[in-house]
Design a protein that fits this description.
With 314 residues, the protein is of the alpha/beta class. 43% of the residues lie in helices and 13% in strands. It is built from 10 helices and 8 strands. The strands form 2 sheets. A 6-stranded parallel beta sheet has the order 3-2-1-6-7-8, sandwiched between helices. It has a two-stranded antiparallel ribbon with strand order 4-5. Helix 1 crosses helix 8, helix 2 crosses helix 5 and helix 5 packs across helix 7. The longest helix is centred in the N-terminal third of the chain and has 26 residues. The two termini are 23 Å apart.
Length: 314
């Protein structure tokens, strides 16, 4: 799908590429969110869920931005996508073994290794080159049902629902292809998604990116661009991530949260008194004030953002 590689022009500076990637992602996200809003598939909170003090109900200049991999979903979306493509014979077993090793490493280490992520995106980008966008979107829907729906963290899903219940928009912000991210956002009832944008001509992928992958500083640029377009006050917004690579994005907002944090992010968050929540171990938040809906196991039904949807198992 879109944006699965690190094939970025070397002529531009890193900052210019980040800005280009961020602006392209924000533009794509705003366009897709209009369709998502019409679907009205947001899951409803369970009866009796306590009303959190934060987010502030009715604050339409606030929004929430969620990283995807290991924050909203266990593992990396691109590896689950690769698994689905292998099932559909897009590539050979030796490439699946490589995907499997990278996914296993990601799950064990809980951090994003730049070399592994680059290899995965390079491989996937070459695989989808020449395929139609509509074809990959349809396949992406199936892959979500098969591999991703049951890997959503209940606690993070509850946090997102708290923002939705407060009347705020909620966006995924991820290096995953914008098409994949949009599918996940729709299934979870979120507003939309900022993701890596790949070039397509006549509805066919060219194998090139627009700017660079939405990673690190590029995520911050995307959030900044979207906030400007939507009239948001970043000081009233929240951001959630597991990775120290997202410190630029987390630092933009007035309410940063470290979710399932890697060691570097945990240290950074503690030094700055950011709120912490680790759903991998059940540890309590390191700072009071996390919405009650974010407790471990709360909104257990919230994981079933796709509960009424057909799932394929094999």
């Amino acid at each position: 799908m879109a944006a699965l590689g690190w094939l970025t022009p070397r002529r531009r500076s890193a900052t210019a590429r980040s800005v280009l990637a961020g602006e392209a992602s924000a533009e794509a996200a705003r366009k897709s969110s209009q369709e998502l809003e019409q679907l009205g598939e947001a899951t409803q909170p369970e009866e009796g869920t306590p009303e959190p003090e934060f987010p502030v109900v009715g604050d339409d200049r606030a929004a929430a931005f969620f990283d995807l991999d290991n924050t909203v979903m266990q593992g990396a979306a691109i590896f689950h996508f690769g698994r689905g493509l292998y099932k559909r014979k897009f590539f050979q077993r030796r490439e699946l073994v490589k995907f499997g090793w990278q996914q296993a490493w990601f799950r064990i280490a809980g951090v994003e290794d730049p070399e592994h992520m680059q290899d995965a995106r390079d491989s996937a980008l070459s695989i989808v080159k020449g395929h139609r966008v509509a074809e990959l979107m349809s396949i992406g829907e199936e892959i979500y049902d098969e591999y991703m729906a049951e890997r959503i963290w209940p606690g993070t899903r509850a946090l997102a629902q708290a923002h939705l219940d407060a009347g705020q928009k909620v966006w995924l912000v991820t290096a995953a292809p914008v098409e994949t991210a949009t599918i996940i956002a729709r299934r979870l009832g979120l507003t939309g998604a900022l993701g890596t944008v790949a070039e397509s001509v006549g509805g066919v992928y060219t194998g090139k990116l627009v700017g660079e992958p939405l990673h690190g500083p590029a995520k911050a640029e995307a959030v900044r661009a979207l906030a400007a377009a939507e009239g948001l006050d970043l000081g009233r917004c929240a951001a959630y991530s597991d990775s120290h690579n997202d410190i630029p994005m987390l630092s933009l907002v007035g309410h940063p949260y470290a979710i399932n944090p890697d060691a570097k992010l945990r240290k950074h968050a503690r030094e700055r008194d950011w709120r912490l929540r680790d759903y991998r171990t059940g540890r309590k938040a390191a700072k009071v004030g996390i919405p009650a809906a974010a407790g471990v196991g709360a909104l257990a039904g919230g994981t079933a953002a796709a509960v009424a949807l057909r799932r394929r198992r094999h």
